[in-house]
């Protein structure tokens, strides 16, 4: 009986993962990249920034942080990695060398929120190049698909 419950649990986990992605042949590729980022932030922050985040984006975040008064600075990448107390769902879409991952869950204060990460391939690996967060009044407002700005949309506006 114990073996059946383990197999059922694994099947449900994999089935749920594939159901949340638009490309069944690469189930949860970007979500796994984000989970790897979370683990690296915990164990080796410099490596996390170097291998999981686009170099230009790291530079933008670090420059913005340096311009902030010290009392307002926050550990951006650590906060991002631990943004959610619970994850309720995630969706991803990959189109060639670009992708979008949207994660829905309760943030550390218990409020419903969505985090969308725009991914690109750099040197053959997935790195996120932009993030967008959306606060919601209720979990019914969660995104039901991967929702990121178009690739040129945030770049042309000068927003990173």
Write up what this structure looks like.
The protein contains 6 helices and 4 strands, in the order αααααββββα. It is an alpha+beta fold. The protein has a 4-stranded antiparallel β-sheet with strand order 1-2-3-4. A hairpin with a 4-residue loop joins β2 and β3 (about 110-120). The longest helix is centred in the first third of the chain and has 18 residues, at about 1-20. The termini are far apart.
Give a short synopsis of this structure.
Helix content is 41%, strand content 28%. The protein is an alpha+beta fold and 160 residues long. Strands 1-2-3-4 form a four-stranded antiparallel beta sheet.
Task: Please specify the SSE layout and strand pairing.
Elements: H1 2-19, H2 29-43, H3 45-52, H4 55-67, H5 76-81, E1 84-95, E2 98-107, E3 112-122, E4 125-135, H6 151-156
Antiparallel strand pairs: 1-2, 2-3, 3-4
In whole angstroms, the N-to-C terminal distance is 51 Å
Number of strands: 4
The count of helical stretches stands at: 6
What would the principal axes of the Cα set say about the shape? globular
The largest β sheet comes out as: 4 strands, antiparallel
Q: By helix and strand content, what is the structural category?
A: alpha+beta
**Average predicted confidence as pLDDT:** 81
Helix content, binned percent: 40-55%
Strand fraction equals 25-35%
Using brief descriptors, characterize the structure shown.
6 helices; 41% helix; four-stranded antiparallel beta sheet; alpha+beta; 160 residues
